[in-house]
Specification:
With 145 residues, the chain is of the alpha/beta class. Helices cover 30% and strands 10% of the residues. The chain has 4 helices and 4 strands, in the order αββαβαβα. The longest helix has 18 residues.
Amino acid sequence: MGFGGSRAYAAEPSYPLSRTLCMLNFDMIGMADEKPFYAVGMGQNPKLAEMLKEVSSGVAEVKGGIDHAIVGSDQWVFHLAGVPTLLLTSGRYSEYNTPEDGPEIISTNSIRRAATLWAQLVRKLDPLDSLPAPLDKYFPPPSRR
């Protein structure tokens, strides 16, 4: 559903955003194999970042990546609504959006590691009723002029 789906959901949520604990987003997770993942939004959501670091031990290395939400990414509208967000990604790769970008290049090990990481984070989040609101660390994208 991507960004359009996120916008539609945020406009008419089936569960109130004010009661939504967080939004965890997977995007391009299939290329890490044994390399680290990147978590986007850790600087805006220190509690989520702390919890992710706790559960990542023995599963996968996670680097901070970009500390602020990315305009146009699937979690952006949730961030704007005050919902804590994290994006887990293996980052861009040379085949991205080329004819070679097909299912045969996906690392099932990468997907397994990402799913295990997120499942452990969800288990840690499950007993919580709330998280601190995201810090406002939005930086406008650079001008294209």
